[in-house]
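Before the break, one more example. Copy the sequence into your notebook; we will annotate it together after we see the structure.
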Amino acid sequence: MQDGTNKSTIEETPIQQSPVTQPTQPHVQTVQEALDAFNPDDKNKALLILVNAAKVAQSKGIFSLEEAELISRAIRAFVVLPGDGPKPTSQA
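Here is what the structure looks like once it is written out:
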C-alpha cells in the first residue's frame, strides 16, 4: 500500500557540456606599441593619427564650434571620401 505520497524516480542522464569558447576580441594597440611601430616616413599613417586625435578631442568637447569647423575643413583637404574623386572636366 502506498503512503499517499507520489514519489517518482527521475532517471539522471549525464549532460554533456560543450567547451565554452570565449569570443576573440580584436587586438587594441597600446600607445607604446603604436610608438614602437611608428615610422615617421609614412606620411599617410601620421596624417591618420592626427585626424583620429582631432576626432577624439572633438568627441570630448575640447574645441569650440569655430575651432571644430576649421579642423574639419583642414581634415577634408586631405581625406578623400568615396564619390569625392576628381570631377570630370567638360571640353567646350
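The longest helix spans residues 43-59. Residues 39-78 form one domain. Try to locate both features in your own notes.
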